């Protein structure tokens, strides 16, 4: 990990003002520490990882603090993200004093934000996925955003809380939807097709982040209630990496038991 200057916390605060709905982990990859040519190894090399942690939630109040095998979920997510090698700095962004205090207690850097941010709710996120998303953006100067998908489990095909994605042959996102995309003419999920599930980890170019919050909401974004569609509807490119990840997002209290069971099985603690 490389040391970062104090401006990264400023980066963090404008980053989380209302634009990161649905993200478990967000990464801002900066180009400004950089030298002349865009394609140097240092391109977008100042990388700040941000884990949003909001206390209030319609479905799951106080979610970031729920214990998973004895540690708060936010701590588990933070510990995993901490293992990513591409992050120069990692912060928890929260709207809540209780969360801030606990995070400071286990050694995290914390920034206070408005209430609009979402939740770091992928406690089993692999650090390699974070690194993969960061590197994808660093390797794609024509993209302003990168994110990850994994294969969708057939039983999740009709769940509107699982966001699906389709990509082009260059690995750029074409569209995200709560509906099943693509749609087979049989009207049912095709067991032979690999549908892609969007994972809540994303990386943005910091220059792009300066204009992004000021872009007005777009039609499809509002209809699907998916923040990332604003990027595509405005014509920006988004890189998508495919990863092998058994998604265990915590959306409802019952998910905690499932995760704990899985962690015991895998001897994670
Ligand atoms: C649609 O799904 C069915 C299985 O449900 C599959 O046999 C078929 O090849 C798929 N594609 C088309 C174009 O029907």
From TrEMBL:
GO cellular component, one term: cytosol
UniProt-listed InterPro entries: Cytidylyl_trans, KdsB, Nucleotide-diphossugar_trans
TM ranges: 12-35
MF annotations from Gene Ontology: 3-deoxy-manno-octulosonate cytidylyltransferase activity
Keywords tagged on the record: Membrane, Nucleotidyltransferase, Transferase, Transmembrane, Transmembrane helix
Extent of the signal sequence: none
Name by which UniProt lists this protein: 3-deoxy-manno-octulosonate cytidylyltransferase
Species this chain originates from: Quercus suber (Cork oak)
